[in-house]
Amino acid sequence: MLVFVLNAGSSSLKYQLIDAKTSEVKASGIVERIGIDGVLKHEIGNNRKLTFEAHIQTHKEAIELILQTLTHDDTKIIDSIDEIDAIGHRVAHGGEYFKNSVVVDDEVIKKIEELIPLAPLHNPANILGMKICRELMPNTPNVAVFDTAFHQTMPEVHFLFPVPHEDYTEHHLRKYGFHGTSHYYVSNEAIKLLENKKDLRIIVCHLGNGSSVCAVRDGKSLNTTMGLTPLGGLMMGTRSGDIDPGIIPYLMEKKNMDTHQIIDYLNKKSGILGVSGISSDLRDIISAAKDGDQRAQVTIDMMCNRVKKYICSYAGLLGGVDALCFTAGIGENSDLIREKVCHNLEFMGIEIDKDKNSSKESKVKEISKDSSKTKIFVIPTNEELVIAQDTYKLVG
Ligand code: AMP
To answer: What positions does UniProt annotate as the active site of this protein (predicted)?
Structure first.
């Protein structure tokens, strides 16, 4: 069963064509800078990479070009778009309404629209992706897979904020959490590695440009670091993560900022970029720190300390940790960050093996010492596969 997985952002579109039964990725790619110079980067299987400078101006043009690339000329891998059995959409915010993936119909789109105030940057683009696919492929079913759904098992004690209760009942103010498909995939892979034992206590560190930690008990999300929006929790590429809320009015007054400007400041100019003054890409910071840049070193230490803070907090909630998992761009690729995060956690049974940690293997690997009570794993995430499999389960 061929599933076209679509992750529509405000100016970009990521996609994969996946055989949901075999997990084979037939093609994948990204359209970036839609409305500016609109470039399509397309990959066939795992090897043939192509770039089209297409000056794509709208999301519809982008999807049309992707479908044309899949079905025409020497890039063709299917004869017609009718061979696509279903479309799986990544949707940022499902609020409290969507606890699982759903088949898209008019009612579902209306509900996702109602949730726009909770995800003003992401949900509109996700809805646009669904509407265009329904128009271009009217006979193909669409499924929405929500980034928040996995965290709907969090109990009230973890999802409520310490503010007056009517803000939750009247304004839906609560922690929702994000990266749900990634936390689900990685924790589920860890459960398999631990031979499907019952009641496992797992902590997943999804460390990428956006980052979050999740405590998983018996396969269910118990707590996670992102909050009402993806701005909460860890220090990220350009996002501040948790800060003293008093900073917001202080800065607004000092720097004469309005609401839009302060949100932009905390989302796009803070985190690793803001503290280092160099870049949001941790590779640049690691290389600057190696060259003796003190601020780069502080940036790395701040980032790792915050991950550590949540690992310790969640270990306390879970009453111990059977597996600590690292995933996403930083978690999968940086042995330095994994080592720093695990440093000094030996007292709670987390012992990293330096040699295993520095092995360059890009597959799943265990990097804990034999004596470590907690298994430490690196598990490459695969959100697209979860979306394809959920889509297959619902319409297959
Ligand atoms: P993601 O959002 O999961 O795609 O992760 C992207 C981020 O991973 C980039 O911004 C980089 O900071 C980071 N990254 C990728 N490779 C490495 C590496 N070898 N060392 C440190 N950071 C890395």
So the answer is: 147 (proton donor/acceptor)
Phi-psi region of 206 (alpha: psi -120 to 50; beta: other; left: phi over 0): beta
The reply to whether 14 falls in a domain is yes
Q: What is the tens place of the pLDDT at every residue in 205-242? A: 999 999 999 999 999 999 999 999 999 999 999 999 99
- 93 Cβ contact list (under 8 Å, min separation 6): 112, 115, 118, 119, 122, 123, 146, 147, 148, 176
Indicate the annotated binding residues: 7, 14, 90, 206-210, 281-283, 329-333, 383
Is 181 among the domain residues? no
Q: Which residues are annotated as a binding site for substrate?
A: 90
Threshold 0.85, pTM exceeds: yes
Catalytic annotation present for 147? yes
Ligand 1 centroid from CA 285, angstroms: 11
CATH number reported for the structural domain that contains residue 89 in this entry: 3.30.420.40
Question: Domain range holding 296?
Answer: 196-378
Last residue of a domain, one of 146, 161, 180: 146
- Ligand 1 touching residue 283 (CB < 6 A): yes
